[in-house]
Design brief:
The chain has 413 residues and is α+β, with helices and mostly antiparallel strands. It has eleven helices and 18 strands. The radius of gyration is 30 Å and the shape is globular.
């Protein structure tokens, strides 16, 4: 795949895309092109006129105009087979999208009269109904609006410093979904294509030592309490193991994480349970990574290992009841139970028929607490439940958790 960011001109260029209905008058087309061309002066815009498939003289006239206007391009698309258009639907040339150029679409925005004509069910919408002044005014306003966005969102693709990184969808991404690791600009483009070019965030990969999370609960009165810091292990972007107390965490990191989580909750005037996930870097710094405004997967151990669970604190916060500082009464590990366990691998081949794991063998181990979520269909990567293992010491809890993992076919940790 060619890199669309290669080349000298790496500043954003904006394209105005306008569908041209059936015209048969050079005068009428000039009334469109001339004021728009004038409005483009001093901007990074160009005009893309999409000929809607007219088989009359429109196409030839547009081609002649494009030859005279360096920043005017024409695309002929047989969208209406020469018929007059109804509502105007601007179309962007696919190649322009593939090249990653930002585009602005003008949709029936020329003048109120255009809306009225369409609402009345007229089958033809001609530029002469509007006049040159109305067209010019509408384009100038649209250009001014887009230029404000351009100044605010200005990018410099030549100066990308976030690679290698992880491209994440801004919405609907969780448990490893909507995430693609990228090392080069070409991989970044391919990843964005794979994600259907939805809004994304590119996160730089950092020298990670381990990951932790803090779960806080905040009341309407501003009172904040937190659970002990928990250390998390992710596999394929999905939480696999949570360990409490966090085995690798220094007191300094713990206090910084607690303070940051309290500050974040207070800054939003948040009420309820909130989870903040942090990266702990190899040099000891912590970086806030994600935030979940709800009880969180990494806090499920609180049901069995604390005197009050995250779910009880959620109820207390929402109903105005007192918030008590949670106490960890047992060191523990929490293992997520994914649908993979229902399809065990034998000699490298994953079973195709769903099989229930050996829960009896797991529950025969001291300190195991099994929670299944009642999902009838197991799927690879789907969270089906969790297992919390408590012990008298962190070492004892870990040893039992490793035994349970071996029974279930979970890779050691």
């Amino acid at each position: 795949m060619s890199d669309p960011f290669d080349g000298q001109d790496l500043q954003p260029r904006l394209t105005l895309s306008v569908v041209v209905p059936v015209y048969n008058s050079e005068t009428t087309l000039s009334a469109l092109v001339s004021p728009v061309s004038a409005a483009l002066a001093g901007t990074p815009f160009e005009i893309l006129l999409v000929n809607d498939g007219s088989r009359d003289a429109t196409g030839a006239i547009l081609d002649e105009m494009a030859a005279e206007h360096p920043r005017l391009r024409v695309v002929h698309q047989a969208t209406n087979q020469g018929k007059a258009v109804g509502p105007w639907k601007p179309e962007l040339e696919p190649e322009r999208l593939r090249r990653g150029l930002r585009a602005m679409m003008l949709t029936r925005a020329y003048d109120d009269r255009m809306f009225k004509v369409q609402r009345q069910g007229k089958t033809s919408c001609y530029m002469q109904h509007l006049g040159e002044e109305a067209v010019s005014t509408a384009f100038r306003r649209a250009l001014a609006r887009e230029m404000r966005h351009l100044r605010r969102d200005r990018w410099d693709l030549a100066g990308i410093t976030l690679l290698p990184g992880i491209l994440k969808t801004a919405r609907m991404g969780y448990d490893g979904k909507g995430q693609i690791r990228v090392k080069t600009r070409a991989e970044l483009v391919a990843a964005w294509d794979e994600l259907q070019r939805v809004g994304c965030v590119l996160e730089k990969m950092l020298p990670l030592a381990y990951e932790v999370s803090v779960i806080v609960a905040r009341g309407r009165d501003g009172q904040v309490v937190h659970f002990p810091l928990q250390q998390n292990l992710h596999r394929d972007g999905i939480l696999a193991v949570t360990t409490v107390p966090a085995p690798n965490v220094t007191e300094a990191v713990s206090q910084q994480a607690y303070a940051s989580a309290h500050k974040i909750a207070a800054s939003m005037d948040y009420v309820g349970v909130l989870c903040i996930e942090f990266f702990v870097l190899q040099d000891g710094r912590i970086v806030a990574n994600e935030m979940a405004p709800r009880p969180h997967n990494s806090g499920h151990h609180t049901i069995d290992a604390c005197d009050v669970s995250q779910f009880e604190l959620q109820v207390r916060a929402m109903t105005g009841l007192p918030l008590v500082a949670p106490v960890l009464h047992s060191p523990c590990l929490m293992l997520n139970l994914l649908g993979d366990l229902w399809f065990p691998e034998v000699d490298g081949q994953r079973a195709t028929v769903q099989q229930e794991p050996d829960w009896a063998a797991v529950l025969a181990l001291s300190g195991t607490h099994l929670h299944l979520y009642g999902k009838s269909e197991a799927r690879v990567g789907r969270k089906m439940g969790h297992l919390t293992v408590t012990g008298a010491t962190p070492e004892a809890a870990r040893a039992t958790a490793l035994q349970a993992a071996a029974i279930l076919g979970i890779a050691p940790f």
